[in-house]
Task: inverse folding
């Protein structure tokens, strides 16, 4: 039986009740058991969070601290995060249904590593940049200074709560901003635990980090529209991303959006199938397909189609479905009943559209885990790229395998999507794979791999998969305003350019 944890709102360095005194519950994704009672933030609570962040920013305590000192403090906090890895992994596994193997080896460990890397990187990117000297219409010297935006909002989804929060909080703090985080109500616990760890270090002044969980319609809308917020960083669905853009426009806030995807995975006819087949399943079925850049459309040459599908089916059927807490589990639960309903609806739709179900297509009820929502890895063939199952994000373990005759045709179908988040090419011939990768309109493309993301590489979407980039120097720059400072040197008024133009 998992421990039940209680969390309040983290505002201005203190743990406080919500104004209404209401709470909501969080449940174990594998069993449905109660694992958390959390204060429910609403508009008024969010305003308090934003005001605390604003006060901190205006005080300059964090914002005006030398970059090297902010970076040093974050690196020190990394020790505390490292120590807490087992607790954080345990929470993510229970709350979000990350298999404990995935949490330990990948999602939590990588989130903490990204914190360290972004803290260190921020100390190397420099506060000032010289501007090239120009002499027309008069000599001009100048510098560009990078400054924090102020109060930044981080609104995160339920699927990868910890790491996606890290991608926003780490660059925001490293560059001198204050942050207010609104995690998804389905999976808020790792973010709240992170705030507890950071708060306990005593390294961060009050109000630098605030966490106000609550429903999107109340807490989220307030955060995205509050006039004291300067920048909104959002990860979630494309539909809500459009709404965030509208809300943020009220005071013309800077916005970065990481949205949905329907990523194309192209197996070329020279691919090593011993790698490409399991790789394509890794691309689709990791975390039960509840990943924005999952490779859910797999394009396979007609010449090797039957062999690839045969191998895929055999491997998919060998994946072990079970509790996220079990070290033997390959695929854990879907996050909740409503996500299971969505998957079932799309599988039914696929059948109605004429696709052929070659494996899966049914939920699994596991003895003792009846409160969890499990679904078999599912593969469709006879899919055309225009079908809804190939165009819409299902966010579950459903793979569409699409036959192609020429590479040109595969590229055209890959690009025929409103999304452009991830993508992949499998081939033994790297120059050939590169020539395909260059033509796919997407923010990230893997060659002979999937899902691995570097702290130093940009991540983000083309088309309706998003705006802006997270991670690396690209991600840090999204949290900085660019100020040009013009510096003039001539001592005498009659040397000024304006003296000649206006005669002053
Ligand atoms: P969602 O869009 O429903 O919710 C995301 C967050 O926005 C939650 O915190 C939610 O409470 C909040 N929210 C909802 N309505 C809001 C509103 N009107 N105003 C302000 N905030 C609001 O997404 P989800 O269901 O939590 O996550 C799944 C989606 O996230 C998928 O579409 C997936 O592709 C996407 N996603 C994208 C990335 C990426 O990096 N591109 C990563 C992970 C997930």
Result:
């Amino acid at each position: 039986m998992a421990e039940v944890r209680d969390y309040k709102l983290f505002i201005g360095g203190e743990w406080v009740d919500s104004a209404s005194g209401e709470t909501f519950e969080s449940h174990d994704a594998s069993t449905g058991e109660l694992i958390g009672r959390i204060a429910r933030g609403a508009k008024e609570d969010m305003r308090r969070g934003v005001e605390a962040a604003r006060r901190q920013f205006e005080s300059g305590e964090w914002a005006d601290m030398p970059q090297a000192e902010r970076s040093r403090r974050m690196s020190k906090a990394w020790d505390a995060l490292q120590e807490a890895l087992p607790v954080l992994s345990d929470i993510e596994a229970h709350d979000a249904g990350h298999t404990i193997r995935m949490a330990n080896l990948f999602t939590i460990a990588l989130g903490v590593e990204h914190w360290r890397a972004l803290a260190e990187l921020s100390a190397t990117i420099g506060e000032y940049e010289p501007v090239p000297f120009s002499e027309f219409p008069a000599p001009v010297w100048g510098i560009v200074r990078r400054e924090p935006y102020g109060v930044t909002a981080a609104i995160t989804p339920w699927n990868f709560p910890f790491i996606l929060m890290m991608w926003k909080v780490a660059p925001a703090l490293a560059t001198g901003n204050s942050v207010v985080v609104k995690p998804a109500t389905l999976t808020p616990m790792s973010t709240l635990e992170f705030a507890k760890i950071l708060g306990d270090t005593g390294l961060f002044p009050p109000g630098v980090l605030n966490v106000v969980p609550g429903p999107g319609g109340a807490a989220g809308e307030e955060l995205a529209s509050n006039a004291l917020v300067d920048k909104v960083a959002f990860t979630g669905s494309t539909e809500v991303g459009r709404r965030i853009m509208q809300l943020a426009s009220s005071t013309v806030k800077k916005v970065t959006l990481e949205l949905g995807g329907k990523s194309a995975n192209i197996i070329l006819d020279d691919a090593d199938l011993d790698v490409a087949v399991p790789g394509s399943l890794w691309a689709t079925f990791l975390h039960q397909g509840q990943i924005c850049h999952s490779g859910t459309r797999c394009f396979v040459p007609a010449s090797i189609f039957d062999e690839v599908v045969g191998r895929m089916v055999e491997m998919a059927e060998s994946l072990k479905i079970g509790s996220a807490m079990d070290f033997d589990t390959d695929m854990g639960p879907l996050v909740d009943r409503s996500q299971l309903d969505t998957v079932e609806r799309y599988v039914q739709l696929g059948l109605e559209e004429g696709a052929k179900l070659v494996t899966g297509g049914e939920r699994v009820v596991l003895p003792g885990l009846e409160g969890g929502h499990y679904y078999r890895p599912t593969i469709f063939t006879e899919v055309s790229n225009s079908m809804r199952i190939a165009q819409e994000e299902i966010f579950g373990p459903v793979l569409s395998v699409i036959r192609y005759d020429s590479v040109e045709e595969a590229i055209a179908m890959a690009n025929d999507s409103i999304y452009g988040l991830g993508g992949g090419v499998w081939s033994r011939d790297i120059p050939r794979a590169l020539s395909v990768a260059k033509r796919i309109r997407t923010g990230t493309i893997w060659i002979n791999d999937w899902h691995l993301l570097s702290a130093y590489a940009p991540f983000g979407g083309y088309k309706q998969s998003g705006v802006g980039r997270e991670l690396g120097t690209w991600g840090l720059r999204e949290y900085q305003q660019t100020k040009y400072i013009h510096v003039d040197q001539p001592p005498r008024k009659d040397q000024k350019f304006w003296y000649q133009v206006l005669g002053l």
User: Anything to note?
Assistant: The mean pLDDT is 96.
